[in-house]
Amino acid sequence: MTLETHPGGTSVVRVDGELDMATTPELENVVQGLEPGGKLVIDLTSCTFLDSSAVRLLVATVRASDEAGGAVALVAGDPGILRVLEIAAVDTILPVHKTLDSAL
Q: Is 66 exposed, middle or buried (0-12, 13-18, 19+ CB in 10 A)?
């Protein structure tokens, strides 16, 4: 995982590889270290797998951000990752973009 700050203060967390029970705590630590009222983009472009612990974290991140007046967006293009987001209805509570540029 990498964290970048883009112009305007948007934080971008890039996930590389699997996001599962073993790696979700790392994403959680990164997200918890950010300003809750800011704009966050989680880039799943290089994510190869997403399990229920990752879905839980995404939903919790959106709720915490909403309460603090922030915003969260996702970037995902892999059909398998998009399908998991659709099944879990994550795509109904936060925007999912095909590119980082559109999410910013």
A: middle
